[in-house]
Amino acid sequence: MTVKGALFDFSGTLFRVESTESWLRTVLERSGTVVPDEEAARYARELEEAGALPGGAAPLAVPPPLEELWRVRDRGAALHRAAYTGLAREVPLPAPELYDALYDRHMEPAAWRPYPDAREVLGELRRRGVRVAVVSNIGWDLRPVFRAHGLDPLVDAYVLSYEHGVQKPDPRLFGAACDALGLDPADTVMVGDDRRADGGAAALGCRVHLVDHLPVDRRPNALRAVLGLLPDGATAS
């Protein structure tokens, strides 16, 4: 296999969202909502258990009324917002406007940090002539996150589920990414953190490389393994 293109997942692969407590405390402070520290910590713990932070922990259990919405949440912007604010509303917060404010906060570039080796790996792939696409199950435009962190010039295409109305592991989303790069799937590798969702690329003939979804400070160099898929000094041209 000659790797000419690399498809990267977003959350948990190239970037990691802030902690649930940071997410909540930022919104509480902005809204002027004052709660005791122990109460804020309890809210954060309950929101995490509910899976209310997109890109954070998965729900311990999805409430039955939200099950169908949760299953298709990444197919549209309105579905995504409804699913995650619905989970957040399982936690009684001091003011009703906090639920939408929390959702809005998670879309801000400041809520995300790139993994330490993301810039190095994307830059080296570009130097070697390997084309890069970001393929994400998401309900909002993540391009501003890449621009704010200086990684946008290293990405050739963005293929986002809500813009296509289809979500991973559906092979059509990976096919759209390969088409955007002008490459045969057999010449690409999909790099992600979810065996089921990102593993769907294998149905097209893409190679799949998985990394662990860990906090940024606990995963300093997992992406560098992608460079090992290319011969030393090789280019994809």
From TrEMBL:
Keyword terms of this UniProt record: Hydrolase
One Pfam match: Hydrolase
Origin superkingdom: Bacteria
InterPro entries: HAD-like_sf, HAD-SF_hydro_IA, HAD_sf
Coiled-coil region: none
Keyword Hydrolase (UniProt): yes
SUPFAM superfamilies on file: HAD-like
Keyword Hydrolase on entry: yes
MF terms (GO), sorted A to Z: hydrolase activity
NCBIfam families in the cross-refs: HAD-SF-IA-v1 (TIGR01549), HAD-SF-IA-v3 (TIGR01509)
Stated name of the protein: HAD-IA family hydrolase
Organism: Streptomyces luomodiensis
